[in-house]
Amino acid sequence: KPSGLQSREAHRCRNMWALGLMLWMYGRDRLVTLDWLKKKFAGRPEIAQANVAALNAGHAFGETAEMSEYGPGYVVRPTAVTPGVYRTVSGTEALAWGLLAGKRAAGLEKMIFAGYPITPASLLLHTLADLKRYGVITFQAEDEIAAIGAAIGAAYAGALGVTSTSGPGMALKTEMLGLAIATELPLVVVDSQRGGPSTGMPTKAEQSDLFQAVHGRNADAPLAVLAAATATDCFDVAIEAVRIATKYMTPVVLLSDAFLAHAAEPWRIPDLDKLPRFPVRFHTDPAGFHPFLREPETLARPWARPGTPGLEHRIGGLEKDYDTGHISYDPENHARMTRARATKIAGIANDIPLQTVALGDDHGALAVVGWGSTYGALHQGVRRAREEGIDASHIHLRYLNPFPRNLGELLRRFDRILVPEMNNGQLVALLRAAFLVPAEGFNKVEGKPFKVAEIVEAIRERLDR
Fold first, then answer.
1. Which domain holds residue 16?
2. 45 and 105, same structural domain?
3. CA torsion sign, 184 to 185 to 188 to 193?
């Protein structure tokens, strides 16, 4: 009442009271927030004063209410960070900007994003819809199948084709994803995983689409699969997905999840001039052209935009002749094309970084191997275990198909391998199959992320056997 504000305006100040209490609980300085309030409401000093009073009142409540019996406060200590300009970024925002940066790096004029609303993937469609001025065209399709069909059509026309969904939508997109593999077109599919199967738990996080991403199509239909580890990592992984898709003329599945889609963290704004560049070279020479010529190093077929003189061609889901690009039912040719598609994806392993250890030694008693959004809990769990004198290391995978070419050798340097996942044991099965290592699963399918204490306890339990 002393502020002179109307009741509705006064009620809005309650958020500042709660913020003041939070600042006390976490030992944060009020000065930055107070200065921001005064600048924000410079034209309405009465609102500024009311919010400042509410903030101070919340802080004073924390100081005087003797709440220590409910648990101590937590002081966020300063940390060493690389100098630069930082901002808060969510995983969804980082994905959107990473895809845009990938389009720029490839030298493509347009990115066509076609999607269908589904939790938690809809946020990416919303974010990209605001980027029209940067050559982004968004299209809300009538269903998941139409969305990926539009993205494939965009890729055929010479644009960066992108679609996004969650687990149930990935199942619906499967047939069209096989078409993208058969036609060998560059496509990025973002899968924001959630609890399943079927509708499952739409607002809860899981890592249960790994099998579907790697193997979930009819026939032998290989493609590249990447996974982001943190909100800021989404930016770099999106750029890498575009690089692989355009260089190898293949669909790429980028795995995120509900946790990463909504998580936020400080992000150092990059220097645009230092971002990677991998310009696309569209095929323009009609001499000897057919749509399934192979580039010797990558086995990628040529990307020829429709309307290029002398490069008229057709592609589709029927098998093509290796030497002419015409439809072929020849058994030996089918075997040759199947091997070529598989060899192309396997060869990506020669073009990605060797697997490194995120924390600890590259050999020892136990390796904790993870992927995706479990990064934070696994990293801190291993760190605490090492502080207790436990011989443990953390290995986190970004490339899930193909695996880094040194991964098997690295895993065999450890006596035990623990694979924590928010599913019922998918990466652990892939590692066992690929490298015949004695990996053990530690699975959580509650729709909730791992706690650091759970990882520490699992490490102790494995090494005490």
1. 7-70
2. no
3. negative
